[in-house]
Design goal:
By secondary structure, this protein is α/β, with parallel strands linked by helices. It has a single domain, classed as 2-Layer Sandwich (Heat Shock Protein 90), CATH 3.30.565. The protein has 5 helices and 7 strands; from the N terminus they run E-H-E-E-H-E-E-E-H-H-H-E. It has a 3-stranded mixed β-sheet with strand order 2-4-5, with helices on one face. Strands 1-3 form a two-stranded antiparallel sheet. It has a two-stranded parallel sheet with strand order 6-7.
């Protein structure tokens, strides 16, 4: 990876561009996407890193959201941080799997029950590379990556 090039990025347009790119690669357009991005949010970071992270999170949300499902993308400022939140209302994840999902090369279901092998399809499967890359980039560039499941499968 080349040396990082930090620049001023206006998040509203940037997130919309990444989302448009992801949707153009998805044949399934039967889900609802809700966007809520503060108009004037600016982040100083490497454009390519941010694009990889956002694209991977959006792709993961699309692949884990069944038809007629919902995906939410929010960006907002707290007292100390800028938060970008990509939420899917998909099939859920067990507590055990939550602890391992960001480690890469981990499937939450049996492979033969899971993989269509078509990127962006529901239950597309994969090796977990996007989430692992996001975790590695978060450690290298100093941002926090978290997983919060509201509907946990027992």
């Amino acid at each position: 990876m080349p040396d990082p090039r930090f620049e001023k990025i206006y998040l509203k347009g940037f997130i919309e561009d990444v989302l448009t790119d992801a949707l153009s690669q998805s044949d399934r357009k039967t889900f609802v996407i809700r966007k809520d991005v503060d108009e004037n949010l600016v982040l100083y970071t490497d454009r390519n890193v941010l694009r990889k992270v956002l694209f991977g999170l959006i792709k993961n949300a699309i692949e884990n959201t069944p038809d007629e499902g919902k995906i939410g993308i929010r960006a907002y400022k707290t007292d100390k941080n800028i938060v970008i939140d990509c939420t899917d209302h998909g099939v859920g994840i067990t507590r055990e799997n939550q602890e391992q999902i960001l480690g890469g090369f981990f499937h939450t279901q049996e492979t033969e029950m899971y993989s269509t092998r078509k990127p962006f399809d529901f239950d597309a499967g994969g090796a977990g590379i996007d989430l692992l890359r996001t975790k590695i980039l978060s450690e290298r560039f100093g941002f926090v990556l978290g997983l919060r499941a509201s509907d946990v499968i027992s």
